[in-house]
Amino acid sequence: MTNPHDNPAALKELQDAIYRDKVLRARAMTSGQRCSDVFELSTFQFHLMHGGAMKRLGTDDAEAGWQEVRRSLDRLAKVHDATLYTTTPPASR
Questions:
Q1: Do residues 53 and 72 lie in contact, with contact meaning Cβ atoms separated by under 8 Å?
Q2: Fewest C-beta atoms under 10 Å: which of 12, 14, 58, 80?
Q3: Is 63 helix (H, G, I), strand (E, B) or coil?
Q4: Cut 0.90: pTM above it
Q5: In 3D, which of 22, 69, 23, 29 has the Cα closest to residue 49?
Q6: pLDDT tens, 26-48?
Q7: Which candidate, 71, 42, 46, 43, places its Cα nearest to that of 57?
Q8: Is 67 helix (H, G, I), strand (E, B) or coil?
Q9: Other residues' Cβ atoms within 10 Å of the Cβ of residue 68
Q10: C-beta neighbour count of 69 within 10 angstroms
Q11: Cα 40 vs. chain centroid, distance in angstroms?
């Protein structure tokens, strides 16, 4: 098999196939399976944030890491509440 990165059309075909497989797999899931996946991804993300916070603080203290995660999430909530950040795009003109 040739390297798809050497051929833009083959690379696009591979990307489309991966995306199609992901969509089909997601469509075949039950609501319970989707919910379980969301919790798994959320837990993983929190642990990544915790590791990053501990590295940023330069500490091995897990509690200090979780306090930093909480501080960061509180800061994001304040920004969101102040409408400085939104998940919806601006209205079209």
A1: yes
A2: 58
A3: helix
A4: no
A5: 69
A6: 999 999 999 999 999 999 999 99
A7: 71
A8: helix
A9: 19
A10: 19
A11: 11
State whether the Cα torsion 8-10-14-16 is positive or negative: positive
Question: Read out DSSP for 2-47?
Answer: --GGG-HHHHHHHHHHHHHHHHHHHHTS-HHHHHHHHHHHHHHHHH
Q: What's residue 37's pLDDT? A: 92
- Write the DSSP symbol of residue 59: -
Q: Sign (positive/negative) of CA torsion 68, 71, 73, 79?
A: negative
Q: Residue type at 37?
A: D
Low-confidence ranges of the chain (pLDDT < 50): none
Count of Cβ atoms closer than 10 Å to residue 11 Cβ: 13
Amino acid identity at 77: A
Alpha carbons 48 and 20: distance in angstroms, whole number: 28
Residue 30 tokens, joined: 């039950």
